[in-house]
């Protein structure tokens, strides 16, 4: 089915909840099934510091209603810390997993304002974002701290989504691959081959985050391919082929299908568009295996 064609009475149309950010529509727009490889695509909704408790629960409920019958695509939502437990109660027993936006690399102690992996697991978190560009650039997280967080996240049995990406300045200086691959290498420096099954990479060019500018599929594919080659060099080709690499940065239903058609793009980490169940579900639909 071509992108933008209308299908009546499909899974996406049966959400009856009222979301603050989600327009309730009687029909749903279904993009084409993706042309991705055998790797199960993974779509994450990074809510960042958005939603309230009630609107977040409604959003999560709508997402569950709309994506629960979609197979062959992993779906994770990353709500703000205070809402994790409430969102868990909404998505419990569904196909949607619970993720956290951050973690600290110690188990407990005098680390005011921080949250450990043990704490996250206790409230049902199974996935964690590490090294998001907002953590790196607003909160000054270094590659060293990020690599410790990656190691701890894995030790705790969490799925770790290691976020990497270059700034506009770095891109314009021609340093995209140098920056991205050095972040990759540093982030994985404490990860053994056998642990790579717990790792997802999210390539998020900083200049594309929240700006409405997306890397072209060709540009994104070049970086994803370089990331995969680098994983091959660091580990082996089997691990490189099995590791999922998400793209992030202004992903929307309108550009998702073209991005997911690229052979090394295995899903998306979605910010703004994950705050609407309609647009988030459309992106999930674009990623499902045909
Ligand atoms: P946007 O989709 O709003 O550009 O955010 C991307 C992002 O930072 C996801 O982690």
Give a brief rundown of this model.
The chain is 37% helix and 16% strand. It is α/β, with parallel strands linked by helices.
Q: Domains counted in the coordinates: how many?
A: 1
Instruction: Give the rounded overall mean pLDDT.
Output: 89
Rg calculated over all Cα atoms: 18 Å
Shape: globular
CATH T-level topology: TIM Barrel
The CATH homologous superfamily name equals Aldolase class I
Q: How would you portray this structure in words?
A:
- There is one protein chain.
- The chain has 290 residues and is α/β, with parallel strands linked by helices.
- It has a single domain, classed as TIM Barrel (Alpha-Beta Barrel).
- It has helices spanning 53-67, 84-91, 117-122, 133-137, 143-155, 168-172, 176-187, 217-234, 237-242, 253-260, 277-287; strands spanning 5-7, 28-30, 42-46, 74-78, 96-100, 127-130, 159-164, 199-203, 244-248, 267-270.
- Helix 2 (84-91) links the parallel strand 4 and strand 5 (96-100).
- Helix 7 (176-187) packs across helix 8.
- It is globular.
- The N and C termini lie close together (11 Å).
- The model is unreliable at 1-16 and 18-37 (pLDDT under 50).
- The site of 1,3-dihydroxyacetonephosphate (13P) has 14 residues, from strand 10.
Task: Summarize the helices and strands and which ones pair or pack.
Blueprint (H helix, E strand, L loop, with lengths): L4 E3 L20 E3 L11 E5 L6 H15 L6 E5 L5 H8 L4 E5 L16 H6 L4 E4 L2 H5 L5 H13 L3 E6 L3 H5 L3 H12 L11 E5 L13 H18 L2 H6 L1 E5 L4 H8 L6 E4 L6 H11 L3
């Amino acid at each position: 089915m071509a992108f933008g064609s209308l299908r009546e009475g499909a899974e996406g149309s049966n959400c009856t909840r009222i979301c603050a950010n989600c327009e309730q529509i009687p029909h749903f727009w279904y993009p084409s099934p993706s042309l991705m490889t055998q790797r199960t695509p993974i779509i994450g909704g990074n809510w960042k510091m958005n939603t309230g408790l009630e609107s977040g629960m409604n959003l999560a409920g709508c997402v569950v209603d709309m994506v629960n019958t979609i197979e062959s695509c992993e779906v994770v939502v990353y709500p703000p810390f205070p809402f994790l437990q409430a969102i868990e109660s909404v998505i419990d027993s569904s196909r949607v997993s619970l993720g956290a936006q951050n973690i600290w690399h110690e188990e407990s102690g005098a680390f005011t304002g921080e949250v450990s992996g043990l704490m996250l697991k206790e409230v049902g978190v199974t996935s964690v974002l590490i090294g998001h560009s907002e953590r790196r650039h607003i909160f000054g997280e270094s590659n060293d701290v990020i690599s410790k967080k990656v190691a701890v996240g894995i030790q705790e049995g969490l799925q770790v989504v290691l976020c990497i990406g270059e700034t506009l300045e770095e891109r314009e200086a021609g340093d995209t691959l140098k920056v991205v691959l050095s972040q990759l290498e540093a982030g994985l420096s404490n990860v053994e081959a056998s642990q790579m099954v717990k790792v997802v990479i999210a390539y998020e060019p900083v200049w594309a985050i929240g700006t409405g500018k997306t890397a072209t599929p060709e540009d994104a594919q070049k970086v994803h391919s370089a990331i995969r080659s680098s994983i091959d060099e660091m580990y082996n080709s089997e691990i490189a082929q099995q590791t999922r690499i998400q793209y992030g940065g202004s992903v929307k239903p309108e550009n998702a299908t073209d991005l997911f058609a690229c052979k090394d793009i295995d899903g998306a980490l979605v910010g703004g568009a994950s705050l609407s169940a309609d647009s988030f579900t459309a992106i999930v639909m674009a990623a499902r295996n045909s």
